[in-house]
Amino acid sequence: MTKKIAVIGGGSWGTAIAENLTKNNFNVYLYAKRAEQVNEMIKTGRNKDYFPDYKLSDFIIPTNDLKEAVSNKDIVFISVPTSATREVSRKVKKYISKDAIVVSTAKGIDEDSFLTNSEIISEELANTITVLSGPTHAEEVILDKPTAAVVASKDMESAKVVQKAMSNIRFRAYTNPDIVGVELGGAIKNIIALASGIVAGLGYGDNSIAALITRGLTEISRFGVELGANKATFSGLSGLGDLVVTCTSEHSRNRSFGYKIGQGLSIDEAEREVGQVVEGIKTTRSVILAKKGGKVKTEMPITEEIYEVLFEDKDPLKAVDDLMNREIKTEIS
Ligand SMILES: NC(=O)C1=CN([C@@H]2O[C@H](COP(=O)(O)OP(=O)(O)OC[C@H]3O[C@@H](n4cnc5c(N)ncnc54)[C@H](O)[C@@H]3O)[C@@H](O)[C@H]2O)C=CC1
Ligand SMILES: O=C(CO)COP(=O)(O)O
């Protein structure tokens, strides 16, 4: 039987996910919070704020009615920023079928609770949860550029259902049971991407970016393993894959934000110019608060420098010098 699917969140990722699903012939309810946005999508067939040049599929049903979107669905994707995940999960609770699979697609760690998105959702909903992650810039997925991703879940049958729903000739999804590693890779790479943007904005070169990607991966893996992840996951699409794309792509919001900081803009100016969610800002604070509170012991020099640049007004040039000036040591510890 054809699955009934909803995507909650009409931003760039929610729209691209919905479009990808329509390529597999699903009718997809796309819920957006703002009524004007929904009316415009219905009237013009375009999500103007995010993809003005792209004509949405006729299989997309834009709606501002959460009940219509969520009721009687087999799969519900949640595609809002981490800061909105709890609120959205609470609202969805009234309408969601108990057998629906929830797909968490945001990449971040909540500042107050130090929870990942799937953990926040599981505090609010009793449904089976899967996580979709990997190197998947919405701008490319929507244009059918070949993309590979990961669907993680403790429940492999549900992961396979989501894998099948998303996979097609242009989107190849793998499964992975390591939900912790998949989510932490996706969250922490945003901090490293932000650092890569800063370094590029300062005018440093490709060597510096390669060093950040490589040492960033070490930092992410150490952090993830301390929190229970499988180290191998960080060599996969949701680890190295997403780290590379976000640290190097013109599409990355985190990298663009960092670039503007490197060029001398203030945090507010840079955030305003990017105009979409920059998850790495809050995730940096979450990690450092967790470290200060003793929840995490792992050494995270890049994240610590980024925290000082973002929240303690440290000069980015000094942050680079301080990273380079640390005690010299062996590569593999
Ligand atoms: N854009 C991308 O290429 C990808 C983004 N992601 C992740 O997906 C998440 C969402 O990112 P984007 O779509 O890029 O952000 P975005 O800024 O383009 O869109 C976020 C959308 O969420 C909506 N929203 C915010 N609060 C809401 C609420 N309380 N109720 C309902 N809707 C609400 C906003 O109106 C906006 O339309 C982030 O965690 C991001 O890291 C993951 C993979 C790819
Ligand atoms: O996670 C992403 C691509 O995989 C999107 O990253 P940005 O939020 O930095 O654009």
From TrEMBL:
<feature type="binding site">
    <location>
        <position position="107"/>
    </location>
    <ligand>
        <name>substrate</name>
    </ligand>
</feature>
<feature type="binding site">
    <location>
        <position position="252"/>
    </location>
    <ligand>
        <name>sn-glycerol 3-phosphate</name>
    </ligand>
</feature>
<feature type="binding site">
    <location>
        <position position="253"/>
    </location>
    <ligand>
        <name>NAD(+)</name>
    </ligand>
</feature>
<feature type="binding site">
    <location>
        <position position="277"/>
    </location>
    <ligand>
        <name>NADPH</name>
    </ligand>
</feature>
<dbReference type="InterPro" id="IPR013328">
    <property type="entry name" value="6PGD_dom2"/>
</dbReference>
<feature type="binding site">
    <location>
        <position position="107"/>
    </location>
    <ligand>
        <name>NADPH</name>
    </ligand>
</feature>
<dbReference type="Pfam" id="PF01210">
    <property type="entry name" value="NAD_Gly3P_dh_N"/>
</dbReference>
<dbReference type="GO" id="GO:0047952">
    <property type="term" value="F:glycerol-3-phosphate dehydrogenase [NAD(P)+] activity"/>
</dbReference>
<feature type="binding site">
    <location>
        <position position="136"/>
    </location>
    <ligand>
        <name>sn-glycerol 3-phosphate</name>
    </ligand>
</feature>
<keyword id="KW-1208">Phospholipid metabolism</keyword>
<dbReference type="GO" id="GO:0046168">
    <property type="term" value="P:glycerol-3-phosphate catabolic process"/>
</dbReference>
<feature type="binding site">
    <location>
        <position position="242"/>
    </location>
    <ligand>
        <name>sn-glycerol 3-phosphate</name>
    </ligand>
</feature>
<feature type="binding site">
    <location>
        <position position="107"/>
    </location>
    <ligand>
        <name>sn-glycerol 3-phosphate</name>
    </ligand>
</feature>
<dbReference type="InterPro" id="IPR006168">
    <property type="entry name" value="G3P_DH_NAD-dep"/>
</dbReference>
<dbReference type="InterPro" id="IPR006109">
    <property type="entry name" value="G3P_DH_NAD-dep_C"/>
</dbReference>
<keyword id="KW-0444">Lipid biosynthesis</keyword>
<dbReference type="Pfam" id="PF07479">
    <property type="entry name" value="NAD_Gly3P_dh_C"/>
</dbReference>
<feature type="binding site">
    <location>
        <position position="189"/>
    </location>
    <ligand>
        <name>sn-glycerol 3-phosphate</name>
    </ligand>
</feature>
<feature type="binding site">
    <location>
        <position position="33"/>
    </location>
    <ligand>
        <name>NADPH</name>
    </ligand>
</feature>
<dbReference type="InterPro" id="IPR008927">
    <property type="entry name" value="6-PGluconate_DH-like_C_sf"/>
</dbReference>
<keyword id="KW-0547">Nucleotide-binding</keyword>
<comment type="similarity">
    <text>Belongs to the NAD-dependent glycerol-3-phosphate dehydrogenase family.</text>
</comment>
<keyword id="KW-0443">Lipid metabolism</keyword>
<feature type="binding site">
    <location>
        <position position="34"/>
    </location>
    <ligand>
        <name>NADPH</name>
    </ligand>
</feature>
<keyword id="KW-0560">Oxidoreductase</keyword>
<comment type="pathway">
    <text>Membrane lipid metabolism; glycerophospholipid metabolism.</text>
</comment>
<keyword id="KW-0594">Phospholipid biosynthesis</keyword>
<feature type="binding site">
    <location>
        <position position="253"/>
    </location>
    <ligand>
        <name>NADPH</name>
    </ligand>
</feature>
<feature type="binding site">
    <location>
        <position position="134"/>
    </location>
    <ligand>
        <name>sn-glycerol 3-phosphate</name>
    </ligand>
</feature>
<dbReference type="GO" id="GO:0005975">
    <property type="term" value="P:carbohydrate metabolic process"/>
</dbReference>
<keyword id="KW-0963">Cytoplasm</keyword>
<feature type="binding site">
    <location>
        <position position="253"/>
    </location>
    <ligand>
        <name>sn-glycerol 3-phosphate</name>
    </ligand>
</feature>
<feature type="binding site">
    <location>
        <position position="13"/>
    </location>
    <ligand>
        <name>NADPH</name>
    </ligand>
</feature>
<dbReference type="GO" id="GO:0051287">
    <property type="term" value="F:NAD binding"/>
</dbReference>
<dbReference type="InterPro" id="IPR011128">
    <property type="entry name" value="G3P_DH_NAD-dep_N"/>
</dbReference>
<dbReference type="GO" id="GO:0006650">
    <property type="term" value="P:glycerophospholipid metabolic process"/>
</dbReference>
<feature type="binding site">
    <location>
        <position position="279"/>
    </location>
    <ligand>
        <name>NADPH</name>
    </ligand>
</feature>
<feature type="binding site">
    <location>
        <position position="12"/>
    </location>
    <ligand>
        <name>NADPH</name>
    </ligand>
</feature>
<dbReference type="GO" id="GO:0005829">
    <property type="term" value="C:cytosol"/>
</dbReference>
<feature type="domain" description="Glycerol-3-phosphate dehydrogenase NAD-dependent C-terminal">
    <location>
        <begin position="178"/>
        <end position="320"/>
    </location>
</feature>
<protein>
    <recommendedName>
        <fullName>Glycerol-3-phosphate dehydrogenase [NAD(P)+]</fullName>
        <ecNumber>1.1.1.94</ecNumber>
    </recommendedName>
</protein>
<feature type="domain" description="Glycerol-3-phosphate dehydrogenase NAD-dependent N-terminal">
    <location>
        <begin position="4"/>
        <end position="158"/>
    </location>
</feature>
